[in-house]
Structures are given as C-alpha cells and as structure tokens.
Amino acid sequence: MREELFKNCTLCPRKCNVNRLEGKRGYCGMDSTIRAARAALHMWEEPCISGKKGSGAVFFSGCGLRCCFCQNRDIAIGDSGKEISVERLAEIFLELQEKGAANLNLVTGAHYVPHIILALELARGKGMNLPVVYNSSGYESVETIRRLDGYVDVYLPDMKYMEPELAAAFSNARDYPQAAQSAIAEMMRQTGPCQFAEDGYIKRGTIVRHLILPGHTKNSIAVLKYLYRTYGEDIFISVMNQYTPVWKNEKFPELNRKVTRREYEKVLDAAIELGIENGYFQEGETAEESFIPAFDYEGV
C-alpha cells in the first residue's frame, strides 16, 4: 500500500523518518491525515495557468520547508486546515472541474503525495480529465517526484536559492539548492519542453518560479543564470516581485520591506542580458496582501 510510505516518512528531503500513521508529525507538521485549507478557483497564477477560467487550486496544510518569510504561514505551520479523506479529496477534484477550472492545482502537497495519487486515480475513474499542476516550494525528494510520473502534467516549482547560506538562514535548508536542482531535473525529464493549447493554457511542461527577496538580487540573478544555462527555452521562468512582509522579522530586518523598483529592474535587466524569452514578469504594485487567499475552508 502507498500509505506504507507514511510509516517511516522520507517524502521530502528532510527525511524525518517518523511514523505518521501513528499520529507522529515530522518537520512538515502533519501526520498522515489529509488537511486542506481551501479549494477554489484561483485567479492569481501565471496567465497560462489561471487565464480567465481560474485554476482549481487545492491548498494543503503543512510544509516541509517553512521559510521564515512565508506568505501562507497559517497553513504552512498547520494552524489552518480541515481534515478530509482520500475519497473527499477526489470529490473536491471533480467539483473543481464542474466549476470550470482550467486545471487542477495541487499547492504544497509533497507530504501527501501517496494520498494525492490515490485521489487522482479515484477522480479520473469518475471522469476527471483536467491537466494536473503540481505547485511546489522546489524542496522536493527526487523519489517523491518520480512517484508522480504519469499523474502530473505541469510542474510549478519554486527555485528560491542558489546560495546555501541564504537557504540555511531563511529556510533552515542548506541543501535547498541541490535538492531543488535535482527535483527540477526530474520534473523536466517527465514533462519535456512546455506545450500549450490553442487557447493559451499550458498542457504540459515545467514553469519555475523565483521570488525576489529584498536585499538579495545577487541570489536572484544566480538562480536565473542556472535555470537558463541549464534548460534554455525548454522551461518558462516566472520572476516575481510580489514579496510581502506580512509580519515583523526580528532576526532578518532586511525582510521587513518590499522589493524596490531598482532591485526588480536589476533582476529583469539580468534576465534580458541572459537572453531569457520564455518567461513571465510582474508589473505594477504586486506586493499586496490581496495575493494571499483567505484560508477559510472554502470548497473543502
């Protein structure tokens, strides 16, 4: 049974080895019971994912990374989330399809992958045929990503850091750069270059996101260089300036402000100089709390 994977959990690079079936919780903060905080049409993803229809986003509780600046902190630390069964999760997938979602968007679900696979099998058996988007922090185990082969059409990982020191400071994950690089390589192996439907929605492929952090444009440019030099035009790169300081950070005061226009333009200039053409860039005043959805159990 796939649920056996929860017995000695190594689903993410933390490899906590706890028995989540017995109710123990690893770094992600979750046992083996599925908890979700929201399931609704989401309009704030990249244009090829949300479009005008909206993406059918399911926000899972818990996270194996838990960055100190997390904008979804309430669900990342497990404070929000309703317990649901695998069967209910499959129903939610079908309900999102009935609402007209362009795709199914699984947000931070690494620690529930065995359950997600079962739910997808159930939903597909009942007619769910939406493209599946796996929306991730990028801090993933290659073995877990391999299990999703054949179940996921589009990978939407972050690539947060190229600097181990920064990853250690902000996410307690010095190994983040290597873990994310290995995970993205496996994602690319599965999907190949991005493919789009006639209406502009992505059908298959990998889009890598990078959130610029205030005071750390050097890290951002290093991320862009790695991605473009490794994958060229086979991936799309989404550069985001929407960083929002949602609470005061005493340890890292540089995180208590938004990204300046000068910082953002410096990163964009680097992207242009590299020759990046397949990408998305945010314009205008995007660092607003309105980008953070209400985790009020809608649709769960």
Describe the secondary-structure layout.
Blueprint: E1 34-42, H1 47-50, E2 55-60, H2 73-76, E3 82-84, H3 86-98, E4 104-107, H4 113-125, E5 132-136, H5 142-147, E6 154-157, H6 164-171, H7 176-191, E7 195-196, E8 202-211, H8 217-231, E9 236-240, H9 261-274, E10 279-281
The number of E-state strands comes to: 10
Oligomer: single chain
Q: Which blocks of ≥5 consecutive residues have pLDDT under 50? A: none
Rounded to the nearest angstrom, the distance between the terminal CA atoms is 25 Å
**What is the CATH architecture annotation?**
Alpha-Beta Barrel
Strand content: 15-25%
Q: What is the C-level CATH assignment?
A: Alpha Beta
* General form: globular
Number of helices: 9
CATH homologous superfamily - what is it? Answer: Aldolase class I
Structural class: alpha/beta
Give the averaged pLDDT, no decimals: 94
Largest sheet: 10 strands, mixed
CATH names the topology as TIM Barrel
What structural keywords apply?
single chain, alpha/beta, TIM Barrel, 9 helices, 10 strands, 31% helix
Textual characterization of the structure:
The protein has 300 residues and is an alpha/beta fold. It has one domain (2-291): Aldolase class I (TIM Barrel). It contains 9 helices and 10 strands. Strands 1, 2, 3, 4, 5, 6, 7, 8, 9 and 10 form a 10-stranded mixed sheet that branches. Strand 9 (236-240), helix 9 and strand 10 (279-281) form a beta-alpha-beta unit. It is globular. This is Radical SAM protein.
Outline:
By secondary structure, the chain is α/β, with parallel strands linked by helices.
